[in-house]
Amino acid sequence: MATVLGFDFGTRKIGVAVGQTVTRTATPLTTVHHQRQQPHWVALERLVREWQPSAAVLGLPYNMDDTVADWAEQVHRFARQLHGRFGLTVHLIDERLTTREARGQLGAAAADPDAVDAFAAKLIVETWLNDQHD
Question: What sequence ranges are listed for the domain YqgF/RNase H-like (predicted)?
Answer without folding.
Answer: 2-102
